[in-house]
Design brief:
The chain is of the alpha+beta class and 161 residues long. The chain has 2 domains: 33 residues; 124 residues, Immunoglobulin-like, CATH 2.60.40. It is built from 3 helices and 8 strands, in the order ααβββαβββββ. It is globular.
């Protein structure tokens, strides 16, 4: 093996190591004392016929250790959450969001839930305490998807109580 090939191989090894240890995991472990940090990528879509108006919407995405039943919206605290202001066109095309999960250990079973409601993202940046309003479209990622990436289709409606 010549010197050029050795340098290329070394560069590849460094990239793999760098990609496996995120800066967030390092900050969480060293500064915050949180032993586990993980990124979950979610793509959220909405059927084109679902929303009549072309206004702005608040998209909330949360992940939980487990939800119990697939259609049930949990009452516990999410492992990760975020919100974003989107349009109906954004949702039809698909919105990609990275969730940052922080916790004591890796989730043995993860469920990611998302919903959309009229309005814009509010001052509670992470939407950790948000719960869907009646009439909101929501979806839950299937449990058999990969651990790093999930796809959610907002194809259900929250019923009025």
């Amino acid at each position: 093996m010549n010197a050029k090939q050795k340098l290329k191989q070394l560069g590849t090894k460094r990239r793999v190591v760098a990609e496996s240890a995120s800066w967030l995991a390092l900050v969480a472990a060293t500064s915050l004392g949180i032993p586990h940090a993980e990124t979950v990528r979610a793509e959220i879509k909405l059927p084109p016929e679902a929303l009549e108006s072309g206004g702005r919407y608040r998209l909330i995405v949360q992940s939980y250790d487990t939800l119990g039943r697939k259609s049930l919206i949990p009452s516990g605290r999410p492992r990760a959450s975020t919100q974003r202001t989107v349009t109906s066109a954004d949702l039809v095309d698909g919105v990609r969001i990275d969730l940052i999960e922080l916790g004591d250990e890796e989730a043995s079973e993860r469920r990611v839930i998302a919903w959309v409601e009229p309005g814009e993202a509010d001052l509670e940046f992470d939407a950790r305490r948000a719960k869907p309003m009646p009439g909101s479209f929501f979806g839950v990622a299937p449990g058999n998807e990969s651990r790093e990436s999930v796809e959610i289709v907002l194809d259900r409606r929250v019923r009025a109580i």
